[in-house]
Amino acid sequence: MRIGEGMKPRIVFTALSIGLTLLTAAAPVAATPARLASINLCGDQLLLLLAERRQIASLSYLAADPAVSAMAGEVGDIPLNSGRAEEIVALQPDLVLSGTYQQRTTNGLLRRLGLAVLELPPADSLAQALAQIRAVATAVGAAAKGEALVHALERRIAAARPSPGDRPEGRAGVLLLQPNLYASGPDSLAGDLLDQAGYRNLAAERAVGHGAFVTLEDILLARPEILVLETAVGEGASLARHRLDHAALRGSAHRRVALEGRLLTCPGPGLAEAVELLAEARR
Fold first, then answer.
1. DSSP per-residue codes, 135-202
2. Disulfide: which of 32, 93, 104, 198 matches 141 by Cβ 3.0-4.6 Å?
3. DSSP tag of 94
4. Which residues, including other chains, have CB under 8 Å from residue 145's CB and lie 6 or more apart?
5. What does the alpha-carbon distance between residue 79 and residue 43 come to, in Å, rounded to a whole number?
6. What does the alpha-carbon distance between residue 235 and residue 167 come to, in Å, rounded to a whole number?
7. What is the pTM of this model?
8. Residue 251 — very low, low, confident or very high, per pLDDT cuts 50/70/90?
9. pLDDT tops 80 at residue 191
10. Is the pLDDT confidence value at 241 over 80?
């Protein structure tokens, strides 16, 4: 999907100073923008979390899709867009939240037409996700609200972490798999959440970085104690999902934990919920 880049395997984005470089617009942004629009899944959710509803002129159509958006139930009657530049220009927003890689052409066009664009690179760690919350909160005039959200997430995640005395080598070995047997690596947001929850990510031992496709043989040889399987709300049967139900995996000695993929994609309360669910499965 063109405007849902947060859902695809991503290259590693290493800068933690997201908020210092995101606002590269052709026009200045008001201290508190009166009209905000988003053409990015994570931008949608951050606006719902941080902005006043009267500020939100439009969100991407993915915002209302419960299969990918952790805040689909909060959209209500906010107008939706399909990410086309002409739609956004007609809204006359003071600030547009967008992605980086797949939306580069749209971003450039919006800037040439005089709109301010705040680009949101995919977060590849908890630290990046929290930095992105702060950056967006500042941009929409809700810095205090953003700081409160960050502190709330940090408290929840800290409470779910293993005790300081737990040694990393004693942690349960785990693989987090998407359909088609894509394993999240240590340099991904999902991989970082596994670490926060007290697991040893077996994908790290394959030096896969952000993530990689694995085979059934790879999984069996890794001998995971737990398989965390990403699911989606309303997900139907598919060949990609069928691979996770292969008889070879069903017969191996591991526990299975289902985790909604929409909790692992964007900065927000879903990250804390994911860590809490993972930590509960560890006990």
1. HHHHHTT-HHHHHHHHHHHHHHHHHHSPPTT--GGGSPEEEEEETTTEEE-TTSHHHHHHHHTT-EEG
2. 32
3. S
4. 50, 137
5. 15
6. 37
7. 0.85
8. low
9. yes
10. no
102: Cβ contacts below 8 Å, ≥ 6 apart:
2, 3, 5
The tokens describing 60, both together, are 């991407």
Q: Is there a contact between 216 and 246 (Cβ–Cβ < 8 Å)? A: yes
Q: Is 185 exposed, middle or buried (0-12, 13-18, 19+ CB in 10 A)?
A: buried
Beta strands in the chain (DSSP E): 36-38, 56-60, 80-81, 95-98, 117-119, 173-178, 182-184, 200-201, 211-213, 226-231, 255-260
CB atoms within 10 A of CB 32: 13
Dist. CA 91–CA 168, nearest whole Å: 51
**pLDDT of amino acid 163:** 79
Q: Assign 155 a pLDDT band (cuts: 50, 70, 90).
A: very high
pLDDT tens per residue, range 44-64:
999 999 999 999 999 999 999
Structure tokens at 47: 């606006």
